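[job 4471] stage=fold_predict status=RUNNING
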Amino acid sequence: MAKLTHEEILAYLEEATILELNELVKAIEEKFDVTAAAPVAVAAVAEAAPSGPTEVSVILKDAGASKVGVIKVVREITGLGLVEAKGLVDKAPSPIKENIKPEEAEEIKKKLMDAGASVEIK
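[job 4471] inference complete, writing structure tokens
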């Protein structure tokens, strides 16, 4: 049997129909006891895909009974001045931080809730 070159094999593959290529793959799988599926690659892609949102926003729903404490925490988180932070708290529900990582949002939520506020992460 004459040995085929890589160029000849590639030329055949370019001209073959999908049906012919499918039959070739099946024949290779049977002949060499292999599978064309790549389960390891599929698993790696599934693990790489994020399981939840990558960016969220922290929304102050209500300042609660200790408005002064919440204003202090909002100032600490946002870097706003006293008047701006008070205005933000007074306009609740209002976004405190937007488009941040979920981990950072959880930390901010904890600080605000410890100060007595009602908080939502969206």
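[job 4471] summary: Residues 106 and 121 are 8 Å apart (CA to CA).
[job 4471] exit 0
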